[in-house]
Please model this.
Amino acid sequence: ECNKAYVEFLKYEAQLFDDCLDVIKYLYNKYDLYIASNGMGDVQQKRIELAGIDKFFIKSYISQNVGFNKPDLGFFEYVFKDLNDDNKDNYVIIGDRIDSDILGGINSNIHTIFVNRNIIKSDIKAEYEIISLDEIKNIL
Model:
């Protein structure tokens, strides 16, 4: 019962970092945007909607619906197959998890931007490493 309640409440927790919406709007005017997220499909989709960012993204790929968690190569292969595009130079993953977002991007041979807000050290190296999302404007 506790787990069910936790999952239900989790759906309604959706906060964006201060620089997030501005950067999403910047990218939206230049690129096709997709969400790649680990988690439960209904929970993540509700959080995306509550945050008010769903209108900027063409589609959300959520691990529960895809059948694989990032960084599993199966997650990324599913996305590329669904997009019907295997030209990996067309893609960049922007993520704040080195162990799922960035490692998955590296293993999938796509461009990677690590948003390292907490200044963690890792042997996994993204193509770009930034502290603030605003820095994306200097890259893309």
